Amino acid sequence: MDELVALCKRRGFIFQSNEIYGGLQGLYDYGPLGVELKNNLKQSWWSSMVYDRDDVEGLDASILTHPDVLRFSGHEDTFTDPLVDCKKCKSRWRLDQITDSSCPSCGSADLTDPRPFNLMFKTTVGPVDDGSNFAYLRPETAQQIFINFKNVIDSTSRSLPFGIAQIGKAFRNEITPRNFIFRVREFEQMELEFFVLPGTDDDWHKKWVDSRLKWWTDQGIKANKIKLLNITGDDLAHYSKSTVDIMYEFPHGLEELEGIANRTDFDLGSHSKNQDDLGLTSNTLKNNASNTKLAIQDIENKKLIVPYVIEPSAGVDRGVLAILNEAFNVEKLGDGKERIVLSFKPHLAPIKAAVIPLKKNNEDLVNKATSLKNILQGLRLGRVVVENTGNIGKNYRKHDEIGTPICITIDFDTLEKDIVTIRDRDTMKQEKLELSKVADYFRNFLLS
Q1: Are strands 242-250 and 304-305 parallel, antiparallel or unpaired?
Q2: Average pLDDT rounded to a whole number, residues 291-319
Q3: Less packed terminus of the chain by CB within 10 Å, N or C?
Q4: Is the pLDDT of residue 288 over 80?
Q5: How far is CA 206 from the centre of its chain?
Q6: Are 141 and 170 in contact (CB under 8 A)?
Q7: Please, which residues bridge with residue 116 across strands?
């Protein structure tokens, strides 16, 4: 983990937030390369969920959330962690981090009794801070999908089964943020709520577990680094009938990468008016303040039903950490030398290609390189850069370290014969190619 964190800062992937003022624990900023990697991962998820399917719509809902939404969803009552303080070293821990009744930091057994700690952030809405005008920063993106269910149905005329996808920020006031960007207070989620007929939910749950496993391996995660964990008993969330967690071997250990939950009709039922008329099966909250029935007409029997929901939910930041960890390699080159390489899948790489003039500030070479860069950038397949620093070996090592799949060298053969040299990041093999064929090569390389 230490090597990975150092690389992320040195090469501009991830920085500690507010660092010049000492930083804020559990908050991180994505630098020039990090934001590209993060956006590429989100775009890959969005394409697979929305563009590659005919049964999913997208949504981008507000972060500020009406308190009633999180009251009737059950979050106000259940979204808490038991908190324990060490009286000796003054450290603070979640109860599940305490083993053998002693402080993980100093070993003292002089601990406070556990007390509930609400994980949701509050903020004042409007000009008067009198305690009554407040909203929550959403602790998950799911609830805004549920409360927009009818809006999406009315505007798209969808029928079951169908889904609503959303990528967005969520906020949790974690007691002990830790392990770099794995557990933080401000993060992004990639969530799908997939609505199905009651009775078909178990089959759909399995289909989505299989689908999500394949997607992660398509992003470069090795199958032998992934395990499935069936959540049971008291470990299930208050809304869940069954949950399967996709567990990944992070640098700090085996932890959740994504959860796929069967939320039954709990959420739509909790936010619906006249719940007793809807034939709900889950233990939803009564006396809801909503004036809306979040239901859909069953085509076969023409009755209103509240569908069940299958929810694949992944953290973007955890995904970035997994992708970085999986791509990170230190290779021995002989003579005691080594190279660091990030072997990203091409579609995730922050920079898709570097065009390198052989000689620094040579006007003819730089102009040729810039012209080629503009052609490749115009294909809209990702970011392409001109690396005008002169030392070809150092440029190769730099782009290996940041994960650029190919480097294209512009040399004097390019000026005289319109021939470039293309170097592959993973094999380090080089080949000559006519300048006129580079655009097709680049396109085929990224899209294959």
Answers
A1: unpaired
A2: 90
A3: C
A4: no
A5: 22
A6: yes
A7: 82
Tell me, rounded to whole angstroms, the distance of Cα 384 from its chain centroid.
Answer: 24
What's 178's DSSP letter? B
Q: Which of 312, 267, 246 is nearest to 72 (CA)?
A: 267
Closest CA to 367 of 357, 354, 380, 352: 357
Question: Quick check: 267 and 149 in contact, CB under 8 A?
Answer: no
DSSP state of 158: -
User: Are 56 and 163 within 8 A, CB to CB?
Assistant: yes
Domains along the sequence of the chain with CATH = 30-69+140-324 (3.30.930.10), 351-447 (3.40.50.800)
Query: Is 243 exposed, middle or buried, given 0-12, 13-18 or 19+ CB atoms closer than 10 A?
Result: buried
Question: Mean pLDDT throughout 207-222?
Answer: 97
Q: Distance (Å, rounded) from C-alpha 324 to C-alpha 316?
A: 12
Q: In the structure, how many helices (H) and strands (E) does the chain have?
A: 13, 24
Q: How many CB atoms lie within 10 A of CB 299?
A: 9
| Separation of alpha carbons 277 and 288, rounded Å | 13
Give the span between the Cα atoms of 405 and 343, in whole angstroms: 8
186-196/226-231 β-pairing:
unpaired
Structure tokens at 235: 């470990």
**How confident is the model over 324-349, as a mean pLDDT?**
93
Q: What is the mean predicted confidence (pLDDT) over 215-219? A: 97
CA distance 122 to 65: 10
**Average pLDDT for the chain:** 91
Is the N-terminal amide bond of 161 cis, ω within 30° of 0?
A: yes
Q: Is the pLDDT of residue 158 over 70?
A: yes
pLDDT digit string, tens, across residues 243-272: 999 999 999 999 999 999 999 999 998 888
Identify which of 381, 444, 378, 393 has the alpha carbon closest to the alpha carbon of residue 423.
393
pTM over 0.85: yes
The 10s digit of each residue's pLDDT in 221-247 is 999 999 999 998 888 887 889 999 999
At residue 258, φ and ψ (nearest 5 deg) are: -155, 145
Question: How far, in Å, CA of 172 to CA of 138, rounded?
Answer: 8
8 A C-beta contact, residue 332 and residue 195: no
Token reading at 225: 């680094």
